[in-house]
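R.M. (postdoc): so does anyone remember the format we settled on? I'll just put the structure tokens first.
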């Protein structure tokens, strides 16, 4: 789940404390090109206030317009946007795409408040759940997700919509550098929750002054200590980009003890080999733990400038998250992040 969906649920909880009814929309399927994946969410009030995204703008406007015309009075409605050529052009859906959206009219009750609280806890990384919704009645409930590799959205034999809900994507930047600043910007654009850890006061001040801290959580702590505190869940990526082994090495030692899906550190091929030897000798890591480290970090894009290197790093994180094959870590050819 993207960080935006966490914002949706948190906003839903806030509006549920001041409204009698809210509407929760979930993308069930996309056909053709679509900027938002199945499972993406949006919450709205009867006044047209909304948080979240279904398509990047066009479908949201159509939904809000229909909502204010009292179109969604049933507990649950499934709508297909862009099905006709005329509608696709009117909504400006890319490449003739079609979006199937579940729209739930949720009366605010104690049951709903507990339901939203459970969803928020799930997005914060405490568990993985399946949210089951009956589109005929609007009834909803959650069950434990016992097969986390299944599709994000599906229907069971009874016709119930099953929506997998897991931790929101998180990027922990272990130390601040020029590359880290651009990584923070790229990751935020992709919907990540971004946390930057660095104990150096002057470096943090420069990071904030450069405008990189907007929407980013900045922690004045050694990254290894923050990681060891339980900050990593299975949707967390940890990247160390400082070239300072006093910061990078301890962060790697702690990160391999967590369920983080991506752990990477910047350096040349030769530096990476030396770091692997050092982490075995001084950090006590074994071969299996070393193999989890992406070093040299990043995809081989021929990157040289900090922004280019950051792009290669964030692209590699997304490659791994999406399950795409890439180069072997230590044995890979040197990339331009090796500076």
């Amino acid at each position: 789940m993207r960080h935006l969906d966490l914002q949706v649920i948190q906003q839903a909880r806030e509006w549920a404390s001041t409204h009698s009814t809210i509407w929760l929309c979930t993308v069930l399927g996309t056909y053709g090109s679509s900027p938002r994946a199945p499972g993406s969410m949006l919450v709205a009030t009867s006044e047209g206030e909304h948080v979240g995204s279904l398509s990047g703008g066009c479908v949201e406007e159509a939904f809000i317009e229909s909502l204010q015309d009292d179109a969604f009075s049933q507990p649950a409605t499934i709508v297909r946007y862009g099905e006709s050529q005329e509608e696709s052009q009117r909504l400006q859906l890319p490449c003739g795409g079609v979006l199937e959206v579940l729209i739930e009219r949720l009366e605010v009750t104690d049951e709903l408040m507990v339901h939203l609280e459970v969803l928020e806890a799930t997005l914060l990384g405490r568990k993985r759940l399946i949210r089951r919704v009956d589109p005929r009645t609007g009834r909803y409930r959650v069950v434990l997700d016992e097969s986390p590799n299944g599709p994000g959205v599906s229907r069971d034999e009874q016709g119930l919509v099953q929506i997998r809900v897991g931790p929101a994507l998180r990027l922990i930047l272990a130390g601040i550098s020029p590359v880290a600043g651009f990584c923070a910007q790229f990751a935020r654009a992709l919907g990540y929750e971004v946390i930057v850890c660095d104990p150096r006061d002057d470096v943090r001040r420069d990071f904030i002054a450069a405008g990189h801290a907007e929407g980013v959580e900045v922690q004045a702590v050694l990254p290894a200590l923050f990681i060891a505190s339980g900050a990593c869940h299975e949707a967390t990526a940890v990247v160390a980009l400082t070239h300072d082994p006093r910061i990078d090495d301890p962060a790697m030692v702690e990160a391999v003890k967590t369920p983080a899906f991506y752990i990477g550190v910047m350096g040349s091929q030769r530096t990476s080999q030396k770091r692997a030897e050092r982490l075995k000798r001084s950090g006590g890591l074994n071969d299996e733990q070393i193999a989890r480290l992406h070093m040299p970090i990043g995809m081989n894009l021929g990157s040289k400038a900090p922004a280019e290197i950051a792009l290669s790093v964030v692209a590699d994180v997304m490659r791994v998250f999406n399950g795409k094959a890439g180069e072997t870590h230590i044995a890979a050819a040197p990339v331009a992040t090796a500076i």
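R.M.: ...and that's the designed sequence above, right after the tokens. Also worth knowing: The chain has two domains: 3-165, 170-321. The radius of gyration is 22 Å.
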